[in-house]
Here is the input.
Amino acid sequence: MKIIETQGLTYIEPLGENCEWYWGTDYRHGDLYEAEEVYQNHDPVTCNRLVFVHYPDGRIIEPMKGKAGQYFGNPISYNGKIQILLADFPKSSLHIFQYDDTVNQVTETISLPLTTVKDCYNLLLRQAPLMLTRQANDGKFQIIWPEKVEFDIGETESFYEKKEDKLFFCRWYEDPDYREEIVVRKYPTGEILEVIPGAWRKMPDGQTWILR
Here is the structure.
């Protein structure tokens, strides 16, 4: 057994399917959109911790520590580097940072006004390329950055990834048994190109398996 001193973080999850990093946070105010609601209610926001654990050695890093009024979203791995989303509510801004472990350096990729989005609900980093997306509960899917794209999707659809000029979504049903299908949409219009029965599973070597 290996003791990993995370200073109280007892849950970590993979940063990506084929990535050597795991990540964890203390969810001081819940998810990013819940922290935004706390700030809008004029209550103080204490920034959550964002901790990364390297596998298999268990090395821990905490590349950024936020200030009061800031809050981290869910990170991802892209091009072998850690991508970090940070909202700064007092400054009304969104920031994407990149951490390169080989040189132990954090650099800012982009800064956007917080008014770019209606709110932080389902505001997530995705790939590829690196994207900031938002899936609202009004049936809209949005790419916020690096390009602006918006179109309607199904009520039970969730975005998976972009490959060249195609966007892949999962759609689920209960009629009455639970089932899933993959919806392939054209980028950037959102036009449905193909519907594939089955559940999406990304494998460590980059393969995509459709289970059915």
